[in-house]
């Protein structure tokens, strides 16, 4: 029996997770697979009520007792330092060593792309390193707040960290019959980390002779993602470059309202979340677009090995756009709940 923890979180998080849960239940029913969903109260409300973000015991239970978690969003104006989001989201990422940030960017509806004549075949998967690089928190400041202030931020790149993300990208390309993996870096300037990434990329890639490999500098890649995104299939890159490029990829393939993501440690645990935030400006109004959360539901099913159910959930997203059953941000008139009911009905039919 697969077990999934649902963490609604803040703002529109619980609204979109509610839709994802109903879609997961309907897909599990349709395919006769056993799936248990449990809601977890980890959010700003709980922090403000009890002064607790997440306890060590909760972190342990989430990872030990569940196969994966699906999180809505965290971020609340009443917690300006976002301490609860940091403890819960980043805490889980580091605690469970979720070293892959998996960001699929597939053009499901060309009309939603800001590009002129986008290629309908555009389908990129970003493998962003999720635990190292410039986000490792190494650094400090000296003479802070004075005109002589010095701030240093170090980029951490370990052989182990680079090897496992590069290998994950090639393994994914192999498993999903993709023909090319692209490394993105800035090796012409950041030569130490660039040297390590390029060496490992060549080493690991040599084990996958069917798969073509190329390397792009990040500035050229930013331009090319706008010019000809259809050229890219699997992209592997560092934490910082992946953070930026995967948002660019999401935008050219339809916007953040459609973009799911996964934080993965293969064979161990995973946490899935829509790329958008908690959108406090529209929370509680029933107009939050749940498609990114539905995309996450499909990723959860795929993570659990329930590929047929995942494919059916995936298909709900373009279908709802085609049929005009969308929220106002995509031009429709449906509420968040109505989109969910329509999809669950489609899956049960
Ligand atoms: N992974 C996460 O949990 C995550 C990610 C980004 C931001 N945040 C947090 O969310 C809060 C708000 O951040 P922000 O305003 O910069 O980004 P945001 O993504 O929440 O909102 C940006 C804009 O997009 C709209 N929007 C976002 N998601 C939408 C959806 N599903 N349907 C329709 N419209 C949607 C919002 O109404 C807003 O106008 C902050 O506290 C931030 O820290 C959390």
Name the features.
2 domains; 10-stranded mixed beta sheet; two-stranded antiparallel ribbon; 349 residues; 11 helices; single chain; binds nicotinamide-adenine-dinucleotide; Isopropylmalate Dehydrogenase; globular; alpha/beta
Question: How would you sum up this structure, described in words?
Answer:
This protein has about 350 residues and is of the alpha/beta class. The protein folds into two domains: about 1-95 and about 270-349, 3-Layer(aba) Sandwich (Isopropylmalate Dehydrogenase); about 100-260, Isopropylmalate Dehydrogenase. The chain is built from eleven helices and twelve strands. The protein has helices at about 15-30, 45-50, 55-65, 85-95, 160-175, 190-205, 220-225, 240-250, 290-305, 305-320, 335-349; strands spanning about 1-10, 35-40, 70-75, 100-105, 125-130, 140, 150-155, 180-185, 210-215, 235, 260-265, 270-275. It has a ten-stranded mixed beta sheet, with helices on both faces. A two-stranded antiparallel sheet has the order 6-7. The mean pLDDT is about 95. Nicotinamide-adenine-dinucleotide binds near residues 73, 280, 288 and 289.
